């Protein structure tokens, strides 16, 4: 049996920009409500609403829009102007329509690796929006499988890699320590952390320093060499 | 080869109540904005917003909440009170937390059929919420597979049934002529229409009268007999 038989990739902030659009929208949201609350306080309130709501909204822009609206109602004690609510809706719809911006080295790396391994996209978020982003990215043909999931836990990785030799022969690549690295290692896979710089507060976790199947790389340009080393080529 | 090797089920309004909660919420929404627009006009505006938005929100409660909020802003020309927006958010969150109400004969029918055929759940809507509803329904163990999809087109049925003998040996059961019956027939499957009484305006389609693989039944109690007839037992 080969040591490595499949490679999984996270999507948002691993293949294309995502968090930066949330940050930008957050800034605009803070400006919109500047008369009612200070920027930092407002962002804290928004994060608290997101944390409260993630259990029933899940991940993605629609839930973010609803949490922004809830925060706007709360911080103004119900005095928020309807036009402001309309602007929040516009901001969210703009995020949903935003063109895909691929991260550096994504096309070359995926192109090279997809010739030698089946690649599987494993991402969470709004089902329809993730499908639309993949279609718009032009990367769809490179993936042998796509899994859009509500939560990234070890069993999700076991299942996603089951058809391709199993999690022990899989490598997961992503920018979230909490969602991509830690649960993939727990499932028995290799895991590669590609930090993005920006990451959402709910995605933080401690790095598994010293774990024999863990590696951090600066960007995807370093991935083929690491893959070759793991595969024992 | 057996004629029938797998049975697919829609979820909302086929296994459990769904549309009735949307209708109830729509009534409350109309009451909330009664000072600004007449009930019928308001529902028309809401439906128009839902149709405009379904392409980027997809199906499910979060998109419905956002369309209600947009409609509230629009019909009041921005004068909607923040407390009203807060109430719309509360109404939507209540829908998300609503307990599952199984439809008649669901448990008996699924129990009997799951002993003889793999059953696959094929549903659209918000990923997380559909997973939560399936878990809360207590029916999860009866399904060999679960597919939560953004749109029910023939290729979705071909893919969902591929691991179980293919769409030609599959039967799809559901309450939507447009999403469950017509595309499943197009994929080459048998299709059983179980009308629910209430159905969303975006789910209407003409019945495929005279199609040799189409059947309408009043409720799931009639399904085992039809399955036996199709299977040639």
Q: Quick recap of the structure?
A:
The structure is a homodimer of 233-residue chains. Chain A contains nine helices and six strands. The first copy, chain A, is an alpha/beta fold.
Question: What would your notes on this structure say?
Answer:
Two copies of one chain form a homodimer. Chain A has 233 residues and is of the alpha/beta class. Chain A folds into two domains: 6-16 and 101-231, HAD superfamily/HAD-like (Rossmann fold); 19-97, Orthogonal Bundle (DNA polymerase, domain 1), CATH 1.10.150. Chain A is built from nine helices and six strands; from the N terminus they run E-H-H-H-H-H-E-H-E-H-E-H-E-E-H. In chain A, strands 3-2-1-4-5-6 form a six-stranded parallel sheet, with helices on both faces. In chain A, helix 6 (127-137) links the parallel strand 2 and strand 3. In chain A, helix 2 (39-57) crosses helix 3, helix 3 (61-75) packs antiparallel against helix 4 (82-97) and helix 7 (154-162) packs across helix 8 (177-186). In chain A, 42% of the residues are buried. The model of chain A has no long low-confidence stretch (mean pLDDT 93). The interface between A and B is large, with 37 and 37 residues.
